[in-house]
Write a structure and sequence with these properties.
Distance between the termini: 53 Å
GO molecular function, one term: DNA-binding transcription factor activity
Helix content: 25-40%
Low-confidence stretches: 220-227
Organism: Paenibacillus tyrfis
Radius of gyration: 25 Å
Number of strands: 11
Pfam families: HTH_11 (PF08279), WCX (PF25583), WYL (PF13280)
InterPro entries: CBASS_pafABC_assoc_protein (IPR051534), DeoR_HTH (IPR001034), HTH_11 (IPR013196), PafC-like (IPR028349), WCX_dom (IPR057727), WH-like_DNA-bd_sf (IPR036388), WH_DNA-bd_sf (IPR036390), WYL_dom (IPR026881)
CATH topology of the largest domain: SH3 type barrels
Strand content: 15-25%
CATH architecture of the largest domain: Roll
Order of helices and strands: HHHEEHHHHEEEEEEHEEHEH
Structural class: alpha+beta
Keywords: Transcription, Transcription regulation
Number of helices: 10
Largest sheet: 5 strands, antiparallel
Oligomer: single chain
């Protein structure tokens, strides 16, 4: 990811007087143009980088410049390491582990034990139990396209099963709710859209067609206003029998359970109404009953009848 690459470039330049842009591009598997954009970003952050022309030229830090190790506390370094380890579980980049080692190396020996303790207190893992092996090629391809600012094309099947061909400008990878999405500007719709990676097929990069990055915030695709957040979010009332209380606690938490006089338990939660919700409720089987809203209750009853019919016919 870009942040990890920027930090790696800074650390590399601190340890070497000069390095060529081509070497950096090969090292981080990006284009030379991307490296120069990274250099501009580092300069904008206040770290002076000089470009030397000629046969023996290259990129280096301004003479006499040193990054003050005290600009980051051990707690701040530990927070960075924790974040990188958590990202690695879901994103799967080997460079993250190398960066963790580099950051750990700047911690003074007297503080090593305390630092290790701080970095092993929390681990956030959004990766599915079956891993991300099938998604990893897509993530790598999209990462390359985003860094190089080149168009991509793919076949997309939306939540309603409609299939279409898309040509887009890829801008950002988003991990939300254990699912990966691509935020991209769709040339056909002429607006930013969110595409679920699992619904993308035949993904390919068009390296001959580049684009200039747009500002997605101008179209409301900022945090809290994304199309990942649907407008149809009804409150669903679930009823669990007492013998299934453990399932309710596992899915919703103990604090969410409301006792009923007959010994059952109610849970009230707002969920986006879509195919995921129907599958989630059906997956709980006979342990749960939907009380409200009434139209959702009818949908679940109808689908349960169809499932029962399939099994009766297969005898």
């Amino acid at each position: 990811m870009k942040l990890e690459r920027l930090l790696s470039i800074i650390i590399l330049l601190l340890n070497r007087r000069m390095v060529q842009a081509k070497e950096l591009a090969e090292r981080f598997e990006v284009s030379i143009r991307t490296i120069y954009r990274d250099i501009d970003a580092i300069n904008a952050a206040g770290i002076p980088i000089v470009t030397y022309q000629g046969t023996n030229g290259g990129i280096g830090l301004s003479e006499g410049y040193r990054l003050d190790r005290n600009m980051l506390t051990n707690d701040e370094l530990a927070a960075i390491v924790t974040a990188l380890r958590s990202i690695s579980n879901s994103y799967g980049k080997e460079q993250h582990q190398r960066l963790v080692e580099k950051i750990s190396s700047v911690v003074l020996p007297a503080h090593k034990e305390e630092f290790q303790h701080k970095t092993n207190r929390v681990l956030i893992d959004y990766s599915p139990w079956d891993g991300i092996e099938l998604l990893r090629p897509k993530l790598q391809l999209l990462d390359e396209a985003i860094d190089s600012c080149v168009l991509i094309n793919f076949t997309y099947s939306n939540a309603e099963g409609e299939v279409s061909q898309r040509i887009v400008e890829p801008h950002m990878l988003i991990l939300k709710g254990r699912h990966w999405y691509l935020q991209a500007y769709c040339l056909e719709k002429e607006e930013f859209r969110l595409f679920k990676l699992k619904r993308m097929k035949g993904l390919a990069i068009d390296r001959e067609r580049t684009f200039i990055r747009r500002d997605p915030t101008t179209q409301g695709h900022i945090e809290g206003k994304s199309k990942l957040k649907p407008s149809n979010v009804p409150e669903v009332v679930f009823r669990f029998q007492d013998e299934a209380r453990h399932l309710a606690e596992e899915w919703f938490g103990i604090e969410e359970l409301l006792p009923v006089e007959d010994g059952s338990w109610l849970v009230k939660k707002a969920y986006p109404e879509n195919e995921w919700l129907y599958s989630f409720i059906l997956g709980l089987g006979h342990h749960v009953e939907v009380l409200e809203p009434q139209h959702l209750r009818k949908i679940i009853a109808s689908r349960a009848e169809k499932i029962a019919k399939i099994y009766k016919m297969s005898k």
